[in-house]
Design a protein that fits this description.
With 329 residues, the protein is α/β, with parallel strands linked by helices. It folds into two domains: 250 residues, Alpha-Beta Barrel (TIM Barrel); 60 residues, no CATH class. Helices cover 46% and strands 16% of the residues. The strands form four sheets. Strands 1, 4, 5, 6, 9 and 12 form a six-stranded parallel β-sheet that branches. Helix 2 packs across helix 13, helix 4 packs parallel to helix 6 and helix 11 packs parallel to helix 12. The longest helix has 19 residues. It is globular, with a radius of gyration of 20 Å. The protein binds zinc ion. Zinc ion (ZN) binds next to strand 5.
Length: 329
Amino acid sequence: MIKNFLKEVVSRTLDYSGVLDKKINTSLNQNNNWLVLMYHRIITDNKAEDPYQLGMCVNGKNFNQQIKYLKKKFEILTVSEVVHCLKNKKPLPKNVVSITFDDGYKDNLTNAAPILKNHGIHASLYVATDIFKERVFWWDRTIQIFSEARSSEFSIELKDGPQNFKANRSGLESLLLKLWLETEDSKERIIQKLLDENPITTDLTHLYLNKSELKQITEQHFEIGAHTCSHPNLELLKDDEIMLELSESKAYLEKILEENVDGFAYPGGYIRDDSVNLLERAGFKYALTTVSGINRFEQNEFLIKRMGMPNSSISDFKRCLSNILVTTS
Ligand SMILES: [Zn+2]
């Protein structure tokens, strides 16, 4: 991971020279700027829990530093608090940031919640409800197949023909990108075949929250939104299939939590042109994308931009923030 090492060196050099602070300070203090940060997992052991560094995991120590820094520079509000301001045409405070998590990993409760609690701030979590049916996300199964692999290469039959993938980080990364473009049925078939040929020994169901833990996390600084049931690529589904994913996940969460669920996050950021209509029909009030950028007062609340955060030191975190603030201000 030489690239990460170099990025870290560059970020530290820029940080020590004061360039990053200067860039961030000059872009801040503008009214109605709203930055939404996206996390998935907060881990304790980089090597064991994130062997391929695919950008979904942030170490607890780094997360703590990141939150500490944000608290100094920003007003941290939940997504629903900001959406309430937008809908009611109330001005936002200066330099607003919201913290979000996707999917529903158990470490959000065990590792992230204590840090949020310690800093007295709240976050939003968007849950794909099939985790409550002991279903393991397709990428977690694929990552595990790669990490337990005995062979050096996988030959996989995809929709555009057979392809070989090396059993390393770049092979895994390109397979995951290809799998996003397969229908749910064929993705399941491909992964099942891979599992039959490369059985894994690790039980992955423990990775996710169960129903009582979901209730618990709402008492610990998290508000909950939906993220579909099966976490599909919405672009590949028919209208009635999308409606089912939207309304069933909403109803499922509302039943567990006994309260309204208004927010939604698009799985993988895949959005259809008519997504906003469908979400409104399903009763949602706002939705988050994975499009990077700053949100403004006139923001469409069904196309809220977010940026993924790095698992790196505070210097690199500042570099990411300054990039987004400078390029979109
Ligand atoms: Zn997701």
